[in-house]
Amino acid sequence: MELTRRDVIAALTAAGVSAGAGAMAIEMADFGGSSGESASNTVSPVTRQDGKDTAELTKAVIDLLDAVAAVIYPSSIENRHEFVARYTQARTANRPGYRQGIVDAAVELDAVARDWHDAPYAAVSSSTAETLLDNLGVDTADPVNNGTISEQIRFYLVDDLLYALYTTPTGGRLVGIENPVGHPGGIESYQRAGMTTDSNQHSNE
């Protein structure tokens, strides 16, 4: 199933981002055409963005988010990387606190991957990426924005990406409904709890 512009708009609307927001309009331009695989040719380590309040997530963070999505999204999904990039950039455009939370969680996950596998998280195989999340206990962790590393990864990375997918028309069809907002559907361990993220996560600054 192919994720489209309509799916990005639906996910952002469900997350409370106005369809008319300037950041969203920029990120929606030239959507489409990429496969589910990452568009990146090289993978860089994720680094903190402290000191510069940048208005967008870096390529390294987007690559890591896409690698997480490769683990938790069904393999039948197409345009995954494009969807993840457009959604997360627009989602965090006017939420610097939430953006920093994503960056911090990404930095921690990437550091673990480099410690355990001598490679950035986005550079390891999908099976290794999944095992790494499992070994960190992310599949059973509660989503807590200021909790342990595993809880923050669950909150900012896993659950937000799952929420994005299953609030889209395409994601809704995967769980048998057309309007999946608030529905707990999904597959396997991560997806089972993916839609339990409460409204606090999606308004956190």
TrEMBL record:
UniProt superkingdom: Archaea
Bias type Polar residues, positions: 194-205
Residue span of region Disordered: 186-205
Record-given protein name: Gluconate 2-dehydrogenase subunit 3
Natural source organism: Haloquadratum walsbyi J07HQW1
Native organism taxonomy: Archaea, Methanobacteriati, Methanobacteriota, Stenosarchaea group, Halobacteria
